[in-house]
């Protein structure tokens, strides 16, 4: 095996909750309130839809895709969800630093330098242009036994929720994540930082219509059938573990520019325009205060 680059699961499609749009001559990321399943091919309109997208819409009988039945490729939670802090160089589209929260690998003129995050502010985790970056691998349908769809995200909400779900489900099922019937679910929330407008994140739950007990029982039956047929899940997990460990970066040079464009836009190209705190419901706050003062004056 060639050394120096990670061997990742074969990707057959993408899952996104946003898209790249052109505004004022600039290509900028824009969030969405639904899932989109795409191929890995782009044209002038963006990523091309995967046939599974229409199939899932028909299944859900909805106009927007907000749940997707999935299976996980691995039993190990850390193989299904890969996450770290990452800092991109927007000019080259390549990462300059990657951190797991404990140590940071930074690209310098002398090569790769390793920094202990707790001992210095030079760690990329402490830089303002650093984001958490997660990749979730899932299987959709039965067309490809080993092929996966990838969901990329820089959302703290999605990464934290998915990490918790994976570890909890692994614990209660006895480590049978790969046979547990699950579904991706899009959830919304609002915060003070979003000025009470909804933001969306991805959750991983037991499939609709099933209880946790039902799902665990089904996972055990499916695992027993696999073993009887000679399917070695432990060996598959180990092969994936060795592949991920073969390199520090899991994206190829072809993928990096698109990842940087979608998740690490330049600061001055922020695509979400929130109202400033001084403007409420289209009225300037100072004007409101002035009117109130005039009302109480004799």
TrEMBL record:
Keywords, A to Z?
Hydrolase
Q: What is this protein called?
A: Hydrolase or metal-binding protein
User: Is Hydrolase included in the keywords of this UniProt record?
Assistant: yes
**Lineage of origin:** Bacteria, Pseudomonadati, Pseudomonadota, Betaproteobacteria, Burkholderiales
Keyword field contains Hydrolase? yes
Any matching Pfam family: Gp3-like
Species of the source:
Castellaniella hirudinis
GO MF annotation terms: hydrolase activity
């Amino acid at each position: 095996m060639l050394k120096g680059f990670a061997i990742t699961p074969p990707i057959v499609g993408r899952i996104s909750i946003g898209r790249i749009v052109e505004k004022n001559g600039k290509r900028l990321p824009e969030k969405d309130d639904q899932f989109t399943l795409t191929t890995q091919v782009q044209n002038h309109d963006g990523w091309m839809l995967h046939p599974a997208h229409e199939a899932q819409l028909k299944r859900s009988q909805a106009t927007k895709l907000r749940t997707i039945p999935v299976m996980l490729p691995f039993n190990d939670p850390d193989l299904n969800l890969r996450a770290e802090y990452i800092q991109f160089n927007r000019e080259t589209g390549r990462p300059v630093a990657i951190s797991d929260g404990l140590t940071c690998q930074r690209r310098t003129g002398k090569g790769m330098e390793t920094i202990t995050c707790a001992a210095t502010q030079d760690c990329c985790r402490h830089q303002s242009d650093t984001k958490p970056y997660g990749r979730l691998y899932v299987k959709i349908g039965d067309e490809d036994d080993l092929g996966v769809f990838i969901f990329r995200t820089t959302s703290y909400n999605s990464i934290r929720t998915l990490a918790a779900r994976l570890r909890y489900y692994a614990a209660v099922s006895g480590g049978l994540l790969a046979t547990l019937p699950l579904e991706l679910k899009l959830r919304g929330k609002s915060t003070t930082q979003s000025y009470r407008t909804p933001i969306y994140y991805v959750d991983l739950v037991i499939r609709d219509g099933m209880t946790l007990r039902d799902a665990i029982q089904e996972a055990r039956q499916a695992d027993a059938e696999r073993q009887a047929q000679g399917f070695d899940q432990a060996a598959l997990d180990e092969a994936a573990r060795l592949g991920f460990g073969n390199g520090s970066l899991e994206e190829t040079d072809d993928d990096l520019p698109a990842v940087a464009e979608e998740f690490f836009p330049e600061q001055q190209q922020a695509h979400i325009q929130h109202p400033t705190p001084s403007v409420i419901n289209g009225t300037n706050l100072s004007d409101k205060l002035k009117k109130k003062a005039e009302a109480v004056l004799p």
